[in-house]
Amino acid sequence: MENEYVLMVIMVTFVVGISATEMFKHYLKIRQLGGGNDRQLEDKLTQLSLQNQVLIERVQVLERIVTDAEHNAQQSTLAQQIDALK
Fold first, then answer.
1. What is the pLDDT of residues 20-40, one digit of tens each?
2. What CA–CA distance (Å, rounded) separates 48 from 83?
3. Distance CA 75, CA 84 (A)
């Protein structure tokens, strides 16, 4: 009878320990993904918005370079545009 109680305590401890570990992992994941305060989220959103705008501008330049119909006349301009992307 005493062995049954010991086994039950061990099993309950095991289940509680695993559950606590999984909850802690979930908490860390949420925190890492930006579960901070509103100011941090606004700063992160602003930063991502600026990065997005820069990438849009770079893609527009690349599209102009690729679709340039006057390839021979624009050789020097093409090199300048490529250098500007670096």
1. 999 999 988 888 876 557 777
2. 25
3. 14
User: Could you tell me the two tokens for 53?
Assistant: 């705008």
pLDDT of res. 60: 86
Q: H or E segment at 41?
A: helix 38-66
Q: How many C-beta atoms lie closer than 10 Å to residue 78's C-beta?
A: 15
* Cβ atoms of residues 85 and 58 within 8 Å: yes
Provide the pLDDT for residue 41.
76
Q: Which residues of 4-16 are buried (b: 16+ CB within 10 A; e: fewer)?
A: eeeeeeeeeeeee
